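Quick one - inputs below.
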Amino acid sequence: MSGVRQTVRYTEYHPRWYRTRVSTWWWLSRWPYLKFILREISSVFVAWFVVVLLLQIRALSRGPQAYAAFEHWLQIPVIVLLNLTAMFFVTFHAVTWFNLTPRAMVVRFGGKRVPDGLIVGTNYAAWAAVSVVLAWFLLRS
Amino acid sequence: MACVSINGANRLGSNSLPELLVFGARAGKAAALTSLEQKPPSEHVIAQANDEKRRLEEQFLRKTGGRERIATIRSEMHQAVESGAGIYRTQDSLQQAADKLQELRERFRNLSLDDHSLTFNTELLGALELEFMLEVGSAIVASALHRTESRGAHQRTDFPARDDRNFLAHALIFRSPDGSARIETTPVVITRWPPGERVYGVKSEVKEVAAR
Amino acid sequence: MAETISVEVARYSPERDTEPSSQRYDVPLHKDWVVLDALNYIKDKMDGSLTFRWSCRMGICGSCGMMVNGEPKLTCATFLSDYAGDGSPVRVQPLRYFPVIRDLVVEITDFMNKLQSVKPWLIRGDEKAVSEGEYLQTPEQLDRYKQFSMCINCLLCYAACPVYGLDPVFIGPAAIALAQRYNMDSRDEGAGERMDVLAQHEGIWGCTFVGECTKVCPKHVDPAGAIQQYKLTATIERFKSFLMPWAAGNSEMESAK
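Output:
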């Protein structure tokens, strides 16, 4: 993008511009920045849940013994702790993104912009509905 | 000052903005192109530029010992022009403003700058602007003194009537060798719309009926 | 003697200093004074060498943006009294992430070039003759882009954007929001032309949706929203051109109006 990048030319009257350097710890300076970095990090935990799911499917396909071993593995304190942390981050991920959706999606209905609250609300409602269906599946026995 | 007269006359804000943005940009481009086509400046022009550079350095950048501040002179100028040459003016108020501006122009020579830098020197800019404003202000006051009538935003309470016989004319101000203002006039060329009396209320209705 | 407040101003003289320092001034604390009033008071009465940009004093010109206690602010709309009370000085610094020319003045050519690169003007495929009249627009059509048209180029959003700070090739919030202002305009036909600049890594895809640009915007432009909305448009457009290469270029963008 060379057309946009500025070409610095020093003249007699602009002998030296001072350039600040961005600190490595810039994201610690303000809570919104920290929140943003946490949201970015949450993707690692989303990936971790995918890995767990894949391991579960593999155990399932290898028969009851393998599945029992998988369930045993899930009970190791370190894994429990890891999954709890992951649960926290995935929830954080979902909540922060849900709250941001009305900014990315402008929905118009009958010529008027649908209010932000309604878009966010719909997200949460859908989330709740899917959770209820899953809970019913898992707990009906 | 430019008056491109986009809508027939000049008006601050809405009209001068397109003048600045459109005609200012065109003037700038044209000046740049013209300068490319010109022969290198003559020694005479270079000497003139060097004189001005020396003046700026001596009067502002390298000067020490001055005692006046820009802000003081500027606010006294605001005060003088506002009260002496506002919408309602008289011989007395204008004369007072003229005297005050003369005093300020003398005091301006005793100006002192804190900023002697060549990088983004806004104080030097402020001084140059103030010098121009003092000169323009003096020109405004001189032409208002000369115009012994009332017209538009120029309301002389000592001369409330409009006087088309003597003053249907643009005032042109020249700087005399001694620095004072010399006034000449040039007649207004009337094309489609002859100027009429600006009246309001019942008077305007009467005028409309008369026009029919 | 009236109440006073300390203002700690960043000073940098390229002719003298290798890095900025700060200087403290005590100025009167009037209830109706903004930070810019304090700076002008200093310049008028105390130190004529203090250098900063300002013009309209009413949040229109966008030239007095600075960092006030670490936050990007229009100094003409930031009241001193909001910082009084705890005894600590108000810190005024040049806009973050831009090179400093002097004191509080930053170099903005980079932004000016970027702004131009997104072609922020009405582009028409076929220009109507003047005699054919105006391009009409309904209030609803105006409503689609009006918010983005409020931008005053004050650059507070750039000073709030860590992406721009870390990688200055990013086109940045205001330029993209202004591109969107024209993309969403029913009279404009230039969305396709702007896409080359916008839908690249240094364009919308550089944005990681920190969202601070929108929070600091004094005109409620919501550049973060503009960028995310454009991401959606660009993605749909990409899929369309992949699935239906025969379809016209900017149908999605046109229908969005």
